[in-house]
Every structure is written in structure tokens, then in C-alpha cells.
Design brief:
Largest interface: A-B, 30 and 37 residues
Number of strands of chain A: 2
Number of domains of chain B: 2
Mean pLDDT of chain A: 92
Distance between the termini of chain A: 14 Å
Radius of gyration of chain B: 19 Å
Distance between the termini of chain B: 36 Å
CATH class of the largest domain in chain B: Alpha Beta
Order of helices and strands of chain B: EEEEEHEEHEHHHEHEHEEH
Strand content of chain A: under 5%
CATH superfamily of the largest domain in chain B: P-loop containing nucleotide triphosphate hydrolases
Number of helices of chain A: 16
Helix content of chain A: over 70%
CATH architecture of the largest domain in chain B: 3-Layer(aba) Sandwich
Largest sheet of chain A: 2 strands, antiparallel
Shape of chain A: globular
Radius of gyration of chain A: 21 Å
Mean pLDDT of chain B: 88
Order of helices and strands of chain A: HHHHHHEHHHHHHHEHHH
Helix content of chain B: 25-40%
Low-confidence stretches of chain A: 1-9
Structural class of chain A: mainly alpha
Low-confidence stretches of chain B: 1-21
Strand order of the largest sheet of chain A: 1-2
CATH topology of the largest domain in chain B: Rossmann fold
Shape of chain B: globular
Oligomer: heterodimer
Chain lengths: ~400, ~280
């Protein structure tokens, strides 16, 4: 296979996914008439955030040839603990959330240690964890629902007062656009300085304009949504903001830190990683800790969204986030995947859910269809990798 | 992190007179042993490597040569025995410790992460970072371009995953690690096994060049032309033990083969534990 395809392989794949996503949106809109309304897009963005936050970390877990089936249960367990501390113990939401973070990191350390040091396959470790922590979620508050009322905490989950308003949305949108343009230009300038080959200028400009336009269009859509009789439009929901920050931070970790590079190296060739002196165990444990931290974040958002912590919080979530990661182009054989792909994968599942909901498709059919979409994504993955020469068989 | 550089004067005073080593060995292995679940993979092995010489290590599959080399590379720590580096006792328990002593290893499998590009693979585990501890991709790309260029001026697609590269280009990436990080001791495991004639010539040239720079090289190989073309001394192993260590020029190919197969030392000429 020629090298041009290899260079642009990931970009080509993401482009294809974006096209599929856009096509889905248009088809759903034509069928339902209101899929692309600001209200629906606002809800989709808000609903995807919880899963989206976790998918970024699950993507890296799968890249490193691990899996975590316990995220849903851990999310539930942590969520109930946070809500329990606030409702039954009267804690402020900050220490309560930090306690939840402590629990999630302790679980991550335990499961990471079993996987990386003892050498139990993470599939088994987290399968056990999935059951145990679902049970623990019940035990924390004896199965009782723990309502939360702190308005600041609830804003983290979105809802009526959970967005930043039109002005801040525009400020953020413009700032992000400026960041996109600046980093694109700085990148070119660095390459020129070092005499490295450049991508075609038109391509870079198209990329900058395209992403900037997307950001601004998103802000405009969120600012076009007015809830009830509030005087101002909603603007960007806080959960989406949190998700966006997570995506940027994790992308940065992947691109600019040794840890991020080692995750991919371990996934690409675990033996080589050991032979060149990469601390494989430490990196694996850190990876589980990262997932634990992001699960806590998602858990707080989920509890705030529901206004309560219940022991069923996050049930089946592991399936959705793994499916989203796979649809987003992460290879279960390890070593390949992107954070942007995880965003698109999470959105695709939510598009399907939302679109079919608007079409009054029953829950049974929705599950059947989403399951088969997952298969289609994996079939596409296999065919694509064969085509691009990544897989020889 | 800056690459490990040899201390000043490490290569000076190699050999005052022909055949009489005046300086301490780069590497001296004394009574090394390694057991895997009851099997003695390496058994009481003594071996020395001096600056600027190539020592070929020969033997059947399973003779223990790869295990012995992995001890030096830090992949399998020694169970018993002593290791002297520059005459000073050293312990190697991890690949990083081996690298810190100036030992570089080129594995037969090349130890490349196929999903990463050539630049990332050259620096894998030893990335250059900015003062904020972040990966310094530009500096690495620049250094990598220079290093690759020294080995193969035609190798320019260094930003694609190495799975897309040819066998020779992949070998260049693996060898570049030794070159860039200024190996003082180089372990090469079957370096020419999967290479065409052009690339084999490149490897031979490189070995001669590094040798002239005072690098000590262990060459694990099955290939007799490699042994007689490159090595100064050779050591034959069988069943985890060293059969004998000789000056390559003293032996014939038949005698070497006989030692590999029969495991009996040649008595016609004297052994040479040191050059």
C-alpha cells in the first residue's frame, strides 16, 4: 500500500466517520423534522457528555491492550458515595466529590495492580470488579436513593441552570477558534524553522477553517436554544464544557507526554516496550488511575444530571463506552485509536439513540440496531485495516 | 534526558602491544548462570569483551547465547555470577540500567513498536523532552533525520508507522538507537538474518566503523561469512556452557562447525579469553 495513504490513514478514517455522522444527522432530520433543532442538539450534547468523558480514557485502555468492564459499576458506586455523603452526611459537594475521587483511585490502584503486577488479565479483574462494585453501590446507602439539592453541584449536570449563557459561550468559542488558528500556524512555523516537510498550505487552512467553523456553529446552536421562559438563551451546557476540557487534556497527554507515547508503544508491541526500558507496569497502573479520575468526573456529572445517586447509576455503561470506543476506531488488538475518534464514536451512538427515539422506535429495536451498528463498525475496521496494509491477513 | 555518553578517555589505551591487553575489559562476565524452571539456560559462563573488538557468539538454538546477551541487555537479570563493566562490578536488572552503562542491544525482532513512526521508535523509552518535561518532537525529528541519514541517505519516510517500512529500513531504525545513544558495547542478535545483500553490506560497514571507534561488539549469529568477515574472536556455546573462546583467524570454518555440533573444544590452537 502506498505511503500517502499511510500518512493520512487516521485522518481519512476520521473524515469518513464525520461524513457518516453528518449523513445520519441529515437523514434523521428529514425523517423526523426536528433532529437538527437547537433543542435536540442541545440535549444530545448534554446526554453524550457522561459517556464521552469515560470513552476518552477507555480508548487509551484499549489502545494499551487492556479492557475495563467495571467502569459502569465504579461510576455507580462512586456516584452513590458522593450523593450519600452530601445527603445523609451533610457534606459539602467538594469534599464529597474528592472522597468519591479517592474511592475511584483506590479501586483503580487495586485493579491496576492486579493487572500490571500480578498479571491477571484485565478482562477477568474488571469482570469481577463489575459485579463487586455494583454490589458496593448498593451497600453504600443500603440501596436507598440519595437525592442531592446543592444548586452549584446540580449545575455540573446541565439542565435549566447548568449552562454558561450566550456571552460566555461566544467568548469561549472565539477563544477556542483563536487557539486552533494559533496552534496551526505555530506548527507550520516550527516545521519551516527546522526545514521539515510541510503539509499543503490549502490543507492546513481548510483544516483550521473547518474546525473553527464547527466550533462556532456549535456555539451558535447552543445559543439558539431557549429553555422555558428564561430571558437568555442557554449557551454551552456545563457537562459539555467538562467533556471538551477532558478531550483536550487527554489529547495533550497522548501527544505531548511520555506516558501517552508509552501507552501506544505498549499497545503496539508489549515485548518491545519492555526491551527498550519502558516501565510497562507503572504506565499500566497510571492508565487505570487516569480512567478512575475521569470516571469520577463522569460520575459527578451523572449524579448532578439525575439530581440523585442511585445504585443503578451507570448500569450497562461499560458496554456503551466500549462500543463507542470501537465505533470511534480503536483497535481491540491494541496500539491504534484516537481521542477525536472517541468523541465521534460517542456521538454516533447518541445520534442513533436520539434519532430512533424521535422516530418512536421501541427500546427493543433500538438495542438490536445499535448492537448491529457496532458489528458494522468492527467489520469496517477489519476491512479498512486490511486495505491500508495495517493488517496482513 | 540527554543520551548516555561515555566518560572521557574511556576508549584510550586499548592495546599497547599486539595481543597483550593493557586495559581492563569493557565487559567481563564471570561465572554467569541463569535457570528457567529447572533448566540451566546459562551455566558458569566466562566471557570478556575489549574495546574495539568484535566477539562472535555461536551455538545452536537453545545453546544459551540469546539468554546470555539478554542478561547484559537487562531483559533477564543474572541468577549467579559477576559482571564487571570497565573493571568495576555492575548489576544490571533492567534495560534502563543496561542502557545507562552504555550497552545497546539490537534484537533479532528489532524491538520496534510497529504502530509508531521511525522517530518515535528511535527514541522509544528515552524521549527527548522540553524543560517542561513534554515530548520534544522537533528535536527528536531533527536528530533522527541526521542519524538515519548517516546509515541510509534514501530513508526519508520517517513519519509513517514503521510497519509500512521495508526490512532494511526497519533495521536502520533499530541500529540508529545504538548510533544515536553512543553505544560503548553493542549486542547484535542475528543482525543480517532478514536482510538483502545491500543491507547486509550496510551492517558490515557499520560494524567496522563502530569497531574503529572503539566500540566493543557481541555478534550473535549463525552465519559463517559474518563470523569470519567481522569477528576478531569467537565463543562457541552449547547447553548453556562455553565450549571455547578462540581468535577467529586461528580456526577454520570446519573446526567452528564441529565445535557447534559436537561441543568439544579445539585443541590445535590455544584459547583466547582475551585478545
Amino acid at each position: 500500500m502506498n505511503s500517502k495513504l499511510q500518512i493520512s490513514a487516521l485522518d481519512l478514517r476520521l473524515t469518513l466517520m464525520a461524513v457518516v455522522l453528518a449523513t445520519m444527522a441529515i437523514v434523521f432530520h428529514l425523517v423526523t423534522g426536528n433532529f437538527l433543532s437547537p433543542e435536540n442538539l442541545y440535549n444530545i450534547a448534554q446526554q453524550t457528555a457522561v459517556n464521552g468523558i469515560v470513552v476518552t480514557a477507555i480508548t487509551l485502555i484499549i489502545v494499551a491492550r487492556q479492557i475495563d468492564l467495571s467502569v459502569g459499576s465504579v461510576l455507580g458506586c462512586v456516584g452513590v458515595l458522593v450523593a450519600f455523603l452530601m445527603y445523609s452526611k451533610g457534606w459539602h459537594w467538594v469534599p464529597a466529590s474528592l472522597a468519591g475521587m479517592g474511592l475511584a483511585l483506590a479501586i483503580a490502584l487495586y485493579q491496576g495492580w492486579l493487572t500490571a503486577v500480578v498479571g491477571v488479565p484485565s478482562f477477568v479483574v474488571t469482570l469481577g470488579g463489575m459485579m463487586s462494585f455494583r454490589g458496593a453501590a448498593f451497600l453504600v446507602a443500603d440501596g436507598k436513593t440519595q437525592p442531592v439539592t446543592d444548586p452549584v453541584f446540580l449545575a455540573l449536570g446541565g439542565g435549566i441552570d447548568g449552562s454558561i449563557g450566550p456571552l460566555f459561550s461566544w467568548v469561549l468559542g472565539v477563544a477556542l477558534t483563536a487557539l486552533i488558528v494559533w496552534s496551526g500556524m505555530a506548527r507550520r512555523a516550527r516545521k519551516v524553522k527546522h526545514g521539515f516537510p510541510l503539509r499543503p498550505l490549502a490543507f492546513d487552512i481548510a483544516l483550521m477553517v473547518g474546525t473553527s467553523a464547527l466550533v462556532l456553529a456549535f456555539v451558535a446552536t447552543m445559543n439558539a436554544y431557549r429553555l422555558g421562559d428564561k430571558p437568555d438563551a442557554q449557551g454551552v451546557p456545563i457537562p459539555v464544557l467538562i467533556w471538551a476540557v477532558v478531550v483536550m487534556v487527554v489529547s495533550f497527554i497522548v501527544r505531548r507526554t511520555r506516558f501517552g507515547r508509552y501507552v501506544f508503544a505498549i499497545g503496539g508491541n508489549p515485548e518491545a516496550a519492555l526491551l527498550v526500558g519502558i516501565p510497562v507496569r507503572r504506565v499500566t497502573i497510571k492508565l487505570f488511575l487516569l480512567l478512575g479520575a475521569l470516571t469520577t468526573l463522569a460520575s459527578v456529572v451523572a449524579v448532578a444530571r439525575l439530581n440523585a445517586g442511585t445504585n443503578s447509576l451507570g448500569t450497562n455503561m461499560e458496554l456503551y463506552v466500549i462500543a463507542a470506543a470501537v465505533i470511534g476506531g480503536v483497535a481491540l488488538s491494541g496500539g491504534s485509536g484516537t481521542i477525536l475518534g472517541s468523541v465521534l464514536g460517542a456521538l454516533m451512538i447518541q445520534f442513533l439513540e436520539s434519532g430512533m427515539l424521535l422516530m418512536d422506535v421501541s427500546i427493543g429495536y433500538r438495542m438490536v440496531i445499535i448492537g448491529q451498528v457496532l458489528i458494522v463498525a468492527v467489520v469496517f475496521d477489519v476491512v479498512y485495516r486490511r486495505f491500508s496494509g495495517e493488517r496482513l491477513t | 534526558m540527554s543520551p548516555a555518553r561515555p566518560p572521557e578517555g574511556a576508549h584510550s589505551g586499548v592495546q599497547q602491544h599486539e595481543g597483550t591487553p593493557m586495559t581492563s575489559a569493557l565487559i567481563e562476565i564471570r561465572g554467569a548462570g541463569k535457570t528457567f524452571g529447572g533448566v540451566r539456560a546459562v551455566d558458569d559462563v566466562n566471557l570478556q569483551l575489549y574495546p574495539g573488538e568484535v566477539v562472535a557468539v555461536l551455538g545452536h538454538n537453545g545453546a544459551g547465547k540469546s539468554t546470555l546477551m539478554k542478561m547484559l541487555a537487562g531483559a533477564h537479570p543474572m541468577d549467579t555470577g559477576e559482571l564487571l563493566v570497565d573493571g568495576k562490578p555492575a548489576r544490571i536488572t533492567s534495560p534502563s540500567e543496561s542502557q545507562a552503562l552504555g550497552i545497546e542491544t539490537i534484537y533479532q525482532t528489532l524491538a520496534l513498536a510497529d504502530n509508531l513512526d521511525a522517530v518515535a521508535n528511535l527514541f522509544l523509552g528515552r524521549e527527548l523532552v522540553t524543560r517542561f518535561g513534554l515530548i520534544d518532537d522537533d528535536s527528536m525529528e531533527q536528530a533522527a533525520r541526521q542519524t538515519f541519514h548517516r546509515l541510509n541517505p534514501n530513508f526519508t519516510n520517517i513519519r509513517v508507522p514503521v510497519r509500512a517500512l521495508s526490512g532494511g529500513q526497519r533495521q536502520v531504525v533499530a541500529i540508529s538507537r545504538a548510533l544515536y545513544f553512543k553505544a560503548r558495547v553493542l549486542i547484535m542478535d542475528e543482525p543480517c538474518a532478514a536482510l538483502g545483500p545491500e543491507e547486509t553490506r550496510m551492517v558490515h560497514e557499520l560494524v567496522r566503523r563502530l569497531k574503529a571507534d572503539g566500540v566493543g561488539i557481541f555478534l550473535i549469529t549463525h552465519d559463517m561469512p559474518d563470523v569470519f568477515g567481522l569477528s576478531d574472536r569467537l565463543s562457541v556455546m552449547k547447553n548453556g556452557k562455553v565450549v571455547g573462546t578462540y581468535r577467529t583467524a586461528d580456526l577454520t570454518e570446519d573446526e567452528v562447525l564441529a565445535m557447534i555440533i559436537g561441543g568439544k573444544p579445539v585443541t590445535r590452537v590455544e584459547q583466547r579469553p582475551a585478545p
